[in-house]
Every structure is written in structure tokens, then in C-alpha cells.
């Protein structure tokens, strides 16, 4: 199985390209963005050495599903998906903040809580909480958005005081974040899942705030299976998850957390294929439809170039 780990397209009207950890974003005439969801996989802010077949298609199609399903809540950047691994949309000026919202105490928040932290990004945390416990109400714990390296936790007050985002724009993003999380929670519950935490990114175009990037994918979100949640929580057992956490846990088990001097463990073909299967399983649970593998796996780049070029030439 092929994996797309690098792109170097030259689309009609292309002005620049930004290679992110997972997505490659092409600027078309300062008006449109062509976002290619590659098969790269990152964890602990490190891009792992091998790609995961079909991962890009999984992420792109999950995001498209949820962008369409939430467009009544907030305007979003998406215009079309001309290829299974590509979304084309409006170019917005992105805010330098990621809006992370948490419904449960888990992951990095739990690790900090366990070490005695009782305030996260300016939000006070109740005493006596346990791992994977539901918060009384969801909390927003924003981070600054780094071009390279680690994103940093920051509070709402610091964001506004430092002029990273205006008070008006931040409060609009905050309102959208709560509403999107509520919709995502409802949609997850219909599939027997719990949306545990996620992140949203926003941008601005012509004075209006838009939802940008991708939402509710297993790369940006964590899901628990609803069945068995309460029993596992009461016993203090790990939850059955639908998220990228299984990759992070595999790395932790092999003594890698992205720290200086640590080596990424060997990713065998068997392991890579197992991760691919997990991503497909994630898609089918989250979306509720059978995953259809895109054809032409022999030359993914050629297929993408043809589909996107045809779309742009029709615009």
C-alpha cells in the first residue's frame, strides 16, 4: 500500500505552499487554499518517519463531513473536495491561537493535574478529580499556534492582553467553540461515542470569523466508546478510545516522547498497516459509513494533481 508523505505540486494560480506536520497547504491567487491531507503522522510535535496508507483520505473525509454538518453554526472555509485527500476553500487570515476544548480530564490535562496542577490556561480545576472524569461543564484551554516546535498553553486573559486576538474576536471564537463541541458531542452520541476533547482553528476574511482547517478528526479529537465508559471509570481502568492516543501510547511504551536524545522506535510494515486499519476503523465509527478506499494507489500525487487542476480550471 502506498502512502503520500511529500507533495510538490504546481497548481494553476499557485503563489506559495506551506508544509505543515500533516497537511500541505497551497495558496491559489491569495483567494483559495488547496489543503492536501497527506499520510504523514505526527506525535509529540514530531513527524514520524513513515506514512500511514489512507490516513489522509480518512482525515479529509471526516473533516468534510463535520464541516458540512456544522455550517449552520459557524461559516467555514470549505468550498469543495475535488479529491479524497484534498479540500479547497477560502483563504482566511488564521488567528495565532488554537481553541482546545475539553469535556473530560484526560491526556496532557490529566498528566498536569496528577502532578499537582489545579489551574490550566487560567481555568481553575476542581479538587479530587480522577482520570477520565467528566468536567461539570466543558473548559477551553487555548494554545498559541507555533509554526515549528511545541504549541504553548495560554489563558484567555493573556491572549487579549498581548493583543494576539482582540477581545471581540476571541469571544466570538469562544462562543463558536462551545457550540461546535455541543454539536460534535450530539453527533458522537448517536454513534455510541463520547467526544472527549478537540481543537478548532479560526480565521478571518472580510471582517468575518470563519472556522478553518479540519474538525472532529482523530488527529484533532479524542473519542471514548460510550458503552463501558462508566464501569471503566469507576474501576480506574483505561478507556477504550478512538483517537491518535494509541500511537502516542505506543511511542511512550517504546521510550519516546519527543524529547532531546530520544529515538523514534522502528515502524515495521506490520505496525504501519495496523495503524492504517485503526484509522479506517475510526472513520467508520465516527462517520457511520463504510470507508471506500480511493483508487489509483499506484500514483497518488498524479491523481491529486489531475483532480485539483481540473477543479481550479473550472473556477
Which helices and strands, and how do they pair?
Layout: E1 14-19, E2 23-28, E3 32-37, E4 42-43, E5 46-47, H1 55-69, E6 78-83, E7 86-90, E8 93-105, H2 107-114, E9 119-120, E10 123-124, E11 133-140, E12 143-144, E13 152-153, H3 156-161, H4 167-190, E14 193-205, E15 208-212, E16 221-225, H5 229-235, E17 241-242, H6 245-253, H7 269-287, H8 300-314
Antiparallel strand pairs: 1-2, 2-3, 3-7, 4-5, 6-7, 8-11, 8-12, 8-14, 9-10, 12-13, 14-15, 14-16, 16-17
What is the arithmetic mean of pLDDT? 94
Question: What is the CA-atom radius of gyration, in angstroms?
Answer: 19 Å
Order of helices and strands: EEEEEHEEEHEEEEEHHEEEHEHHH
Helix/strand-derived category reads alpha+beta
Detail the poorly predicted runs. Answer: none
- Main sheet overview: 8 strands, antiparallel
Cα shape:
globular
State the distance separating the first and last CA atoms: 33 Å
Strand residue percentage? 25-35%
How many helical elements?
A: 8
- State the assembly state of the protein chains: single chain
Helix content: 25-40%
Q: What's the number of extended β-strand segments? A: 17
What does this structure look like?
The structure is a single chain. The chain has about 325 residues and is of the alpha+beta class. The protein has helices spanning about 55-70, 105-115, 155-160, 165-190, 230-235, 245-255, 270-285, 300-315, and strands at about 15-20, 25-30, 30-35, 40-45, 45, 80-85, 85-90, 95-105, 120, 125, 135-140, 145, 150-155, 195-205, 210, 220-225, 240. Strands 8, 11, 12, 13, 14, 15, 16 and 17 form an eight-stranded antiparallel beta sheet that branches. A hairpin with a 3-residue loop joins strand 1 and strand 2 (about 25-30). The longest helix has 24 residues, at about 165-190. It starts with 13 loop residues before the first strand and ends with a helix.
